[in-house]
Amino acid sequence: MEDIIAIIFIFGGLTTVGISFSPLGRAIADRIRFGKTAPELEVDHALYDEMDRMRLEIEEVRERLDFNERLLASARDGAPPPEGGEDG
User: Fold this and answer.
1) For 24-75, what is each residue's pLDDT tens digit?
2) Which of 25, 40, 55, 59 would disulfide-bridge 20, Cβ 3.0–4.6 Å?
């Protein structure tokens, strides 16, 4: 009987240790440690600044693409080119 209890404790302990190092175990530990609220994460403001710059560049490229599409469409139709230029 004692042998069975020892085997259960050994395998149960190893299983507990294995789960504690898994993502599930870490999530459970964080839930115990912090409760229902998530811990505060560090915010990388440089990353947000780079994303804003990329959005502006994409918007500029989109405007240029629209202008070129109108220019090609007007050339195909034989109409005069649209007003405005690529820079403004």
Assistant:
1) 888 888 888 887 776 677 888 999 999 999 999 999 999 999 999 999 988 8
2) 25
Q: In 3D, which of 62, 80, 60 has the Cα closest to residue 71? A: 80
Domain range list for the chain? 1-40, 42-88
Give the closest residue to 86 by CA, choosing from 58, 60, 57, 56. 60
Asked if residue 76 has pLDDT above 60, the reply is yes
Hey, what are 24's tokens? 């599930």
What separation in angstroms does the CA of 9 have from each of 12, 20, 35, 44?
Answer: 5, 16, 29, 45
Distance CA 26, CA 64 (A): 49
CA dihedral (9, 15, 21, 23) in degrees, to 10, reads -140
